[in-house]
Amino acid sequence: MKKRISKMASIIIVLLMAITPISAHPGRTDANGGHYCRTNCAKWGLRDGEYHYHNGGGSSSSSSSSGSKSSSKSSSSSSKTPSAPKVIDYTKQGETAGYNYKKANPDASKEDLTGKDQTYVNGYNTGFSNAENELTTVSKDQGTQNGTTDGTTTETYNLDVPVGLMSEVYLTAYKEAYNQSESDDFSKIRQDANKKAIENVRNLKAKDITSDYTLEKEKNVYKESYQSAYDQEEKEINSLKKKLSKYAQEDFDNEKQSDEYYHKYKNYKVYDVLDKKYKKEYNKYKKEKEQEQEDKIVAVGGAGIIALGIIGYIFYKRKRK
């Protein structure tokens, strides 16, 4: 009997020695209670680079109530690898921040990035530049469009910059387009002035056969003729622009609408400018008059309600007496 007990003890010791090396070989474990095998893996019954747990770490170290189930799970848990730590993309983070900041602040310079990670700074600069390029294109296009329109319909610059655009880029494009548009309005007038000046020079050359005729005299006649013709037309057009509001109001009051004041410029580009301004002022005055009429109706209606209220009150007082 003693021999039998001794033999059983020997078998148990051998089994324990066979099991413990797998979970007791040297090496630090991580927060999950396990690590990767790097050296002498075969000695411990492991593959090179295989991840495994120690001291009940990982999913196999559940409560003692799991009993026999824990041993069956230990083999499967040894093949699981822990989730890798989340890697922060500082470049992308900086790019998004730089782009959004410039979009929200079109006229602002870059923020102070002192102390920021260099990869974040690089991303920020990229995002900021991308937003700046987009804003430059949009601001220039919008400035050109508005400047062209205003150059043919208004007498002065409108320097209000739309929200979300770069002021300097917008205003530069706006003024260039405005000046070009305004200049085009008088192109036909300049052509006519040039034609008239040349005719005067030719007439001078045909009539003046005396010795005092010179090329310099011809130049002066051209210059004076051109300037006189151009100045006269330009002055009249600018004067018309200022008077169109008055003409439009008078026409509305007289229940008519006509281009008689500027019809002579029908073949000139500037006619469109004058016509737009006249109609704009006409419709503006029309709306003002309509609003006045509505206000009167409301006022009369309010007065009527008050009057009815007073009459009702008087009858009420009489009835009580």
Account of the 3D structure:
This protein has 321 residues and is mainly α. It has eight helices and two strands; from the N terminus they run H-E-E-H-H-H-H-H-H-H. It has helices spanning 2-24, 68-77, 90-104, 118-153, 167-185, 187-207, 215-253, 270-320; strands spanning 34-36, 51-53. It has a two-stranded antiparallel ribbon with strand order 1-2. Helix 3 (90-104) runs parallel beside helix 4 (118-153), helix 6 (187-207) packs across helix 7 and helix 7 packs parallel to helix 8 (270-320). The longest helix has 51 residues, at 270-320. The protein starts with a helix and ends with a helix. Mean pLDDT is 75; it is low at 20-24 and 59-78.
List keywords for this structure.
mainly alpha; two-stranded antiparallel ribbon; 67% helix; elongated; 321 residues
